[in-house]
């Protein structure tokens, strides 16, 4: 199975994270993509980079959105081919 194209950086008890996860789950269900979730509190480098932006959504390893996930924008990003060897 290929690596998930979407990464959600979140933290427990975050209502915006719950909303972002729901959007991502809906998009993944429709597109066949998958996602992974990383807890910002477990990774000091993520905390340093994104503390004021969570939830943060990455697509193909690059920052895509923060605070809220725009469903149509995410769908459009996923419709582009994944480029390997970035």
Provide structural commentary.
- This is Glutaredoxin family protein.
- It holds the Pfam family Glrx-like.
- The chain has one domain (6-79): Glutaredoxin (3-Layer(aba) Sandwich).
- The protein has 3 helices and 4 strands.
- It is α+β, with helices and mostly antiparallel strands and 86 residues long.
- The chain has helices at residues 15-31, 44-50, 71-79, and strands at residues 6-10, 35-39, 56-59, 62-66.
Task: Briefly characterize the structure.
This is Glutaredoxin family protein. The chain is an alpha+beta fold.
Topology readout:
Layout: E1 6-10, H1 15-31, E2 35-39, H2 44-50, E3 56-59, E4 62-66, H3 71-79
Parallel strand pairs: 1-2
Antiparallel strand pairs: 1-3, 3-4
Helix pairs in contact: 1-3
| Structural class by sheet pairing and helices | alpha+beta
User: What is Rg?
Assistant: 12 Å
Strand content: 15-25%
Question: What do the pLDDT scores average to?
Answer: 92
Strand order of the largest sheet: 2-1-3-4
CATH topology: Glutaredoxin
Q: Any idea of the CATH class? A: Alpha Beta
Shape: globular
Give the number of domains. Answer: 1
| Helical proportion, percent range | 25-40%
Q: Considering the protein shown, what is the CATH homologous superfamily? A: Glutaredoxin
Give the total of beta strands. Answer: 4
């Amino acid at each position: 199975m290929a690596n998930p194209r979407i990464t959600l950086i979140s933290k427990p008890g975050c209502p915006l994270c719950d909303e972002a996860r729901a959007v991502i789950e809906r998009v993944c269900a429709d597109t066949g993509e998958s996602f992974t979730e990383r807890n910002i509190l477990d990774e000091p480098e993520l905390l340093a980079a994104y503390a004021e932006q969570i939830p943060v959504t990455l697509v193909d390893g690059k920052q895509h959105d923060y605070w809220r996930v725009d469903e149509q924008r995410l769908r459009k990003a996923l419709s582009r081919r994944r480029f390997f060897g970035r």
